[in-house]
Design a protein that fits this description.
Chain lengths: 416, 430
């Protein structure tokens, strides 16, 4: 059972603000302002405005540890804190060995200013770096905790310390599929009785010099710099790429018995999941994984209210995803792609996008996909646009994938 | 009754050999490959040595190896280890078995970081005497200088994704990064996926190299590495009083885990049975283990319970044994708490004394050694053990291998960030 949600996103911060922002159609993709990106071809992103981990961290004694946290780690720790608070789970309310964590995060990028002084010493001309000078002099200019600032498992590490979670702790890294893989593993851990509560979190901060410059080299990023809010166009004929985002999305996941015994507010239920690889991103492999997830949830395609797609707005990615979805659902089932509202959050994309369906089921209303106006024959699916649509069935199916065809699918159910 | 999980194939790329047989033979002899770092000029770093993979050629393992030219060595080592493991298991042919029931679970880390371009571009954007770069300028330089095709292959989904694509493993996948515990955690959770019926075969383990300027810089700043530069080969000395940090290594280890009935039905050679898995968190500090081994104790106890074994059933422990002051003392305390009197009768050794610390790949490679020790009745030693530490007073199989027959062994992996993993392997008894 999903019993708590924590979120910091380009469209809203905090569970209570998230649904109103979705329902209102808030657009979080804007011209990049965190840094000067004028030299990059793509200059739009889903930024979190005015995020301060220091201001948001309720455990004031732990604020001193922020010096060991890159932005992605800060976001993850705050997301975890918000989810635990939303679930009403203070430290100590669950026996330490009965609560664990599954996190989705990637290697963070180093802050260039953490290495600027060292780099200047070892590369005075700025052309090449002499590793001998770096080792002899540069290293002394680097903060001792430098490496800990961006290791993928650090959000989980800090969260386990803050909430005394001594159950299993794992961090998933298979790109955009990480969140759903973490959700599946946490569910598996609860089912085998190893814990009563698992925090399933995710975070990523892509609006930094290293990630932006790298992704501009090998990810199809949108060139619609003059129209940031309309730049990401899922499954639209005129789509020209995606845009990065940042944020954190975290759920508390509990067994039904534990949730009911403490009178928890149940947001929704994880009904099933599956993962598998579609070699070459052709479509049938994704369809197979969707079928497996439906079977795992013991439902059929006809039971699904809507498909929640990754819908990144890339030419090849959307066509692949649509082929897989179409093979199972045809044009019968509405497809909702929330990513155009906040950008591609990478490791945090799966849970952020899943949350949109959890709240849609809960509130009985499916918001539309934004920026989809011209259907693409290469994407033979029914993309839900226009007015909100009443939810008519209790299940939603969420799709995530990586460019190497690693597809993860989850089925969530409205709690009744 | 849980579905049972057996090991039907193993593969490694390590500093001590490019196959399980080579690795085990070198381990029994007490060899080490630790020496000066040659991957880059580390001569002025606080630590100048490491345990490196040598004479590795991907083309020896994989057809058209140049397809992977832009990938990091984490992907290269993983591909070669997978080729061995799947070959031994008889599962290399993509037409063998139901590939949608075969998956990948890889513990891995970052790929190739372009240290030169990253740092020189930062320098070019930093004014003389300043500690802050002109970010806009740095962004432009990075965008123009970085090699796009190479950067594209460094995403963290790549190593696990390439294993699935190259070897037609279409089933469930996962990839974790829990520092030094990652590949053991991958093996444990992959076992659970088979037990739960989500897959029949999982290729599980890890691949990693941090022998890079940024990797060594990071660990040196944390003062985690041994700085015994005048004697690299004796630097990794787990449980010795004079230990001063770990020796960094690199490599990959992968095992084919298979559901017992599936293995029997296709007549696979069963190497050993994976019987127990424990997973806990310390919830203590970022880099230090809990001094009394709090998380490690429950982790080992959980693994024994999972395997339905008593402490006295265990005949050998392959320790995490990093050669840091904190780990080796805490692990020893944890072993005593779990095994009581039996702790003093139980041979315990650290493969890291010879191999160094393969970080995300460590646990899987050490499990391969543990499995071969079980099969051959020979326990590889803890080398470089000279000065006893009063806090570490167990039997660490010092310096010489020992012939001992046993049926069950436990392998520990504990990681930065507080993740603890214990695995139990058992002789396959039908």
């Amino acid at each position: 059972m999903l019993t708590g949600f924590g979120v910091v996103s380009p469209i809203a911060t905090g569970a209570d603000a998230f649904w109103p922002a979705l329902a209102a159609g808030t657009r979080g993709v804007r011209t990049i302002s965190h840094l000067d990106a004028t030299e990059l071809p793509s200059r739009v992103a889903g930024e979190v405005p005015a995020f301060s981990a220091k201001a948001m961290m309720t455990e004031t004694k732990y604020r001193k540890e922020l010096k060991s946290m890159a932005r992605t780690v800060e976001l993850g720790v705050i997301g975890s804190q918000l989810a635990m608070a939303n679930a009403g789970l203070a430290k100590g309310t669950v026996p330490p060995h009965r609560i664990g964590i599954e996190f989705a995060a990637l290697m963070g990028a180093t802050d260039l200013n953490d290495m600027a002084a060292a780099a200047k010493l070892a590369s005075p001309g700025g052309e090449h770096t002499d590793s001998r000078v770096w080792g002899a002099k540069g290293l002394n200019e680097i903060t001792p905790v430098w490496m800990l600032k961006f290791l993928p498992n650090m959000p989980a590490c800090h969260a386990t310390i803050l909430y005394d979670m001594q159950g299993p702790s794992n961090t998933q890294i298979p790109g955009d599929s990480s969140g759903l893989v973490a959700l599946a593993e946490a569910s598996r851990i609860l089912r085998r009785g190893l814990a009563d509560v698992m925090l399933v979190g995710s975070s990523e901060a892509r609006i930094n010099p290293v990630t932006l410059s790298r992704h501009n080299l090998f990810v199809q990023l949108t060139k619609r710099n003059d129209d940031p809010a309309g730049a990401i166009r899922p499954f639209d004929l005129t789509r020209d790429g995606t845009a990065p985002g940042e944020g954190t999305a975290a759920f508390t996941l509990e067994t039904l018995e534990h949730a009911q015994a403490r009178g928890a507010n149940i947001l929704g239920e994880v009904a099933g999941w599956a993962a598998g690889v579609d070699r070459g991103c052709k479509g049938p492999g994704l369809a197979r994984v969707i079928h497996n997830a439906l079977a795992h949830a013991k439902v059929s395609a006809a039971d699904i209210d809507h498909v929640n797609a990754h819908g990144t707005g890339t030419t090849a990615g959307d066509a692949f995803e649509a082929r897989g979805i179409a093979e199972v659902f045809g044009r019968e089932t509405p497809v909702f792609a929330p990513l155009s509202r906040f950008g591609n959050l990478g490791a945090a994309s799966g849970l952020m996008e899943l949350a949109c369906s959890v709240f849609a089921l809960k509130h009985g209303e499916l918001p539309p996909t934004l920026n989809h106006s011209e259907p693409d024959p290469a994407c033979p699916i029914d993309v839900h646009v226009g007015a909100p649509r009443p939810v008519t069935k209790p299940f939603a199916l969420k799709v995530s994938y990586t460019p190497l065809g690693q597809c993860a699918v989850a089925v969530v159910k409205k709690w009744q | 009754m849980k579905r049972r999980v057996v090991i039907t194939g193993m593969g490694v790329i390590t500093p001590l050999g490019h196959s399980p047989a080579e690795l085990f033979a070198a381990s029994v002899k007490g060899e080490t490959a630790v020496g000066p770092i040659t991957h880059f000029d580390a001569s002025t770093f606080p630590t100048t040595f490491a345990s490196q993979v040598s004479n590795f050629d991907l083309a020896k393992w994989i057809d058209r190896a140049n397809r992977f030219a832009n990938c990091g060595v984490n992907t290269h080592y993983a591909l070669a280890a997978a080729k061995q493991a799947l070959g031994e298991a008889g599962l290399l042919d993509a037409n063998t078995g139901d590939r949608s029931r075969m998956g990948v679970y890889l513990g891995s880390g970052e790929g190739k970081e372009d240290f030169d371009i990253l740092t020189s571009s930062t320098a070019a954007a930093t004014a003389e005497g300043s500690r802050e770069a002109n970010i806009g300028k740095a962004v432009g330089l990075l965008f123009r200088r970085l090699n796009g095709p190479q950067e594209a292959e460094q995403e963290m989904y790549s190593p696990s994704g390439y294993l699935a694509n190259e070897f037609a493993l279409d089933g469930p996948f996962a990839s974790c990064q829990t520092a030094c515990a990652a590949s053991s955690q991958a093996i444990g959770e992959a076992m659970e996926m088979i037990r739960d019926g989500e897959a029949d075969v999982m290729l599980a383990g890890g691949s990693h190299s941090m022998i890079t300027p940024l990797g060594i810089s990071g660990f040196n700043r944390l003062t985690a590495l041994s700085q015994r530069n005048d004697s690299p080969k004796t630097a990794s000395r787990p449980f010795d009083l004079t230990r001063d940090g770990f020796v960094i290594g690199e490599g990959a280890g992968l095992l084919v885990l298979e559901e017992l009935e599936s293995a029997k039905a296709r007549g696979a050679n069963i190497i050993a049975e994976l019987t127990g898995y424990g997973t806990t968190a310390d919830a203590f500090r970022m880099t230090d283990p809990h001094p009394e081994g709090r998380g490690a104790i429950r982790c080992m106890a959980d693994a024994l319970a999972d395997a339905r074994l008593q402490p006295t059933d265990i005949g050998y422990i392959n320790a995490h044994g990093t050669s840091t002051q904190a780990n080796d003392a805490a692990e020893t305390a944890g072993i005593k708490a779990v095994f009581k009197d039996h702790a003093y009768k139980l041979p315990i050794s650290s493969s890291k004394s010879m191999l160094g610390h393969l970080i995300a790949a460590a646990g899987a490679v050490e499990l391969v050694i543990t499995v071969l020790a079980l099969r051959k009745g020979v326990i590889p030693p803890t080398i470089n053990y000279q000065t006893p530490d009063p806090d570490c007073d167990l039997d660490y199989v010092p310096n010489r291998a020992r012939e001992v027959r046993f049926k069950h062994a436990l392998s520990n992996s504990f990681g930065f960030g507080g993740q603890n993993i214990s695995l139990v392997v058992s002789e396959f008894a039908g």
